[in-house]
């Protein structure tokens, strides 16, 4: 009996350690209109080569549950936007407030597309193949998000075109309603 207790204790310790390691690797900041990124949030190591001053790793995650009621699928879903500190980095010697604002907007743009996904999920009539249908919506939104992020970087020249950066800041601020 003592041996079984020890095995259970070891199993619990293993699961706790594994969960703690995974949680540390997956550190994330949930998007909110009140929270503005600071350089302290960028914890990743910058590459030793390249011309990029900073990188924001952010993205959309979702989960859902569904039940079939009277032949129709009822869906409860959650879509969230996260910033990933361990995958985001900057080079302190060349970064400034303008570049931080540029990086914040990448995070804000991800939230804009999370909202688009929420609207699309809410407007969709799902079949019993809901898992594939939700995944297809997610993949399409992510493709649109990536294209939009590229357009943003091109038009602002990665924040170097200050007038364009200000125009994008205003447009995204308006789109998010704050």
Automatic annotation (TrEMBL):
Looking at the record's lineage, which domain of life comes first?
A: Bacteria
UniProt xrefs under Pfam families: DUF922 (PF06037)
Please give the name of this protein.
DUF922 domain-containing protein
**Taxonomic lineage of the native organism:** Bacteria, Pseudomonadati, Bacteroidota, Flavobacteriia, Flavobacteriales
């Amino acid at each position: 009996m003592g041996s079984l207790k020890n095995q259970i204790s070891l199993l619990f310790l293993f699961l706790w350690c594994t969960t703690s390691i995974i949680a540390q690797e997956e550190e994330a900041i949930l998007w909110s209109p009140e929270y503005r990124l600071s350089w302290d949030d960028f914890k990743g190591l910058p590459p030793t080569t390249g011309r990029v001053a900073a990188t924001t790793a952010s993205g959309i995650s979702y989960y859902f549950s569904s039940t079939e009621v009277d032949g129709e699928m009822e869906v409860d879903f959650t879509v969230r936007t996260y910033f990933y500190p361990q995958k985001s980095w900057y080079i302190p010697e060349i970064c400034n407030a303008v570049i931080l604002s540029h990086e914040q907007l990448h995070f804000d743009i991800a939230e804009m597309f999370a909202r688009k996904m929420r609207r699309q999920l809410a407007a969709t009539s799902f079949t019993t193949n809901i898992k594939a249908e939700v995944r297809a919506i997610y993949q399409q939104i992510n493709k649109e998000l990536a294209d939009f992020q590229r357009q943003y970087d091109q038009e602002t020249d990665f924040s170097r075109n200050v007038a364009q950066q200000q125009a994008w800041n205003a447009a995204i601020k308006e789109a998010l309603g704050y």
